[in-house]
Structure formats: C-alpha cells, structure tokens
C-alpha cells in the first residue's frame, strides 16, 4: 500500500533555465526536490510546445538516479509512449481528455514496469478517470489549465475533485497517490494537502524562488 501521507515535491523543469539544464537539475535535487517533473507539450493538446523524448533522455543522462516524472500534455500519447519509456522516464502521466486508446496505452506503461499516472484538467470530472483508478499509481488533478507555468491556482474548480478522489480511494481501497500541478505555493499546497493531495508539482515557486531549498521545505511542510 502506498503511503499517501508521504509528501513528494516535484520541481517542474518547465520553469528551469534551460541554458544551464545540468546545473538546474542538480540544483533542484540538491535543494531537496524528490522528483523532476517534465512537462511535455505538443502545441495541439495545449497551446504551447516544450520538449520531447530526447530532452527527457538528456535529463536522464544528467541525473542517472533521479525520479523523472514525465507529464504528457499531448494529443496522442499512444504514439509516443514507447519513446518516453526508452528515454528514461520513471513515471509517465497521460491525460484522459484526448481521443486515443487509453487502455492500450495504460497497458504499455504498466508492462514496462514504470509508474503510471492519469491526469484530468480543471474542467474534467472525476467520473472520466473512474474506469482507470484501480490501475494507476498517480491521479494528477491539474490545478491550472495546462500549457504554461506561472498561472493562478484554481481552488473552487479542483479541490472538490481532490476530495472526491480521496474518498473513492478510501471506499474502494485503491492505491493511487493524488498529485496537483499548477500554481502550487506553500499556501496552495496547504489547501491541496488538506483536501487529500500528497504530491506537489511546482515550477515558478521552486526554480524561480530566491531560495529554492527554503521554497521546497515550505512545500514539504505546508
Ligand atoms: C502547466 C504544467 C505545470 C507547470 C507548473 O501546464 O503542467 O507543471 O509547469 O508551473 P507553475 O508551478 O509555475 O504553475
Ligand atoms: Zn505538469
């Protein structure tokens, strides 16, 4: 059984200074980051393009022992899941919204032996994720509309879903962590944790903080 009280802090590389990617990855780890969150965007599912499998492979070479939390904000994760597995992801999170064969993609990730996450956008109900909850390791409840860092935490639209997910998990004795992503600060992490989330993704509030270690400690203790 996973320990849902274990707080996990995942700095998002989307907010890192890519000119010094190696230093930035090591800075996040040395500052107490538990996971490195990699925001893959294809310009179709979200209004932004970030990076692909070769970027993830580069991060894996930089940080051979890091837990790489790959967040696929792409229209067709089924077409790319193998390359993100091969690139060295430790977890792959796919979105429930795009039109593709979710079950087969879930199968591919599970067969590879790495961790599996399913993400829902602010406007997406928990019901959309329900059929898959017994198979996943992480439910990612997006707390902003995905595509960009630096946005405002969407409390009303998302905290009821975190609460509902925690309730369903308890009632059905399921085994997925609840992760939140977008606008996470010490203040919003406290709100999210109170509602049942234990994995906090933060980009601006870690890589752009004046003191990254302090910022990560505050997210851990929020
Ligand atoms: C948004 C990404 C988030 C984002 C978080 O589309 O999925 O991971 O990078 O950035 P902040 O923490 O700045 O909101
Ligand atoms: Zn993300």
Describe the structure.
This protein has 222 residues and is of the alpha/beta class. The protein has a single domain (8-221), classed as Alpha-Beta Barrel (TIM Barrel), CATH 3.20.20.70. Helices cover 37% and strands 19% of the residues. It contains eight helices and eight strands; from the N terminus they run βαβαβαβαββαβαβαα. It has helices spanning 21-30, 53-62, 77-86, 102-112, 155-171, 186-195, 204-207, 212-221, and strands at 8-11, 35-41, 67-73, 91-95, 115-120, 138-142, 177-181, 199-202. An eight-stranded parallel β-sheet has the order 1-8-7-6-5-4-3-2. Helix 2 links the parallel strand 2 (35-41) and strand 3 (67-73). The radius of gyration is 16 Å and the shape is globular. The two termini are 24 Å apart. The model has no long low-confidence stretch (mean pLDDT 98). The chain binds D-xylitol-5-phosphate (DX5) and zinc ion. The site of D-xylitol-5-phosphate has 22 residues, from strand 2, strand 8 and helix 7.
What's the SSE blueprint?
Elements: E1 8-11, H1 21-30, E2 35-41, H2 53-62, E3 67-73, H3 77-86, E4 91-95, H4 102-112, E5 115-120, E6 138-142, H5 155-171, E7 177-181, H6 186-195, E8 199-202, H7 204-207, H8 212-221
Parallel strand pairs: 1-8, 2-3, 3-4, 4-5, 5-6, 6-7, 7-8
Helix pairs in contact: 3-4, 5-6, 6-8
D-xylitol-5-phosphate (DX5) is lined by residues 12, 14-15, 37, 39, 71, 144, 146-151, 181-184, 201-205.
Question: Structural class from helices and strands?
Answer: alpha/beta
Name the bound molecules: D-xylitol-5-phosphate, zinc ion
Main sheet: strands, sense, barrel: 8 strands, parallel
Which of globular, elongated, flat, extended, rod-shaped describes the shape?
Answer: globular
Strand order across the largest sheet: 1-8-7-6-5-4-3-2
**What's the count of strands?**
8
Work out the strand percent: 15-25%
CATH topology, anyone? TIM Barrel
Number of alpha- plus pi-helical segments: 8
Q: CATH homologous superfamily - what is it?
A: Aldolase class I
């Amino acid at each position: 059984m996973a320990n849902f009280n274990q707080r996990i802090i995942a700095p998002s590389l989307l907010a890192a200074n890519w000119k010094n990617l190696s230093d930035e990855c090591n800075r996040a780890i040395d500052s107490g980051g538990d996971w490195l969150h990699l925001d893959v965007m294809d310009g179709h599912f979200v209004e932004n393009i970030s990076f692909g499998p070769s970027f993830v492979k580069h991060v894996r070479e930089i940080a051979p022992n890091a837990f790489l939390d790959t967040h696929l904000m792409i229209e067709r994760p089924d077409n790319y899941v193998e390359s993100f597995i091969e690139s060295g992801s430790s977890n792959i999170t796919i979105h429930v919204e795009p039109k593709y064969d979710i079950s087969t993609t879930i199968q591919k990730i599970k067969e590879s032996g790495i961790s599996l996450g399913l993400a829902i956008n602010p406007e997406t109900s928990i019901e959309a994720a329900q059929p898959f909850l017994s198979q996943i390791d992480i439910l990612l409840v997006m707390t902003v509309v995905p595509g960009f860092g630096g946005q405002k935490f969407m409390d009303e639209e998302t905290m009821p879903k975190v609460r509902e997910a925690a309730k369903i998990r308890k009632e059905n004795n399921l085994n997925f962590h609840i992760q939140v992503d977008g606008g996470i600060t010490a203040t919003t992490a406290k709100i999210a944790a109170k509602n049942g989330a234990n994995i906090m993704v933060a980009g601006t509030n870690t890589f752009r903080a004046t003191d990254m270690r302090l910022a990560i400690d505050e997210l851990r203790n929020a």
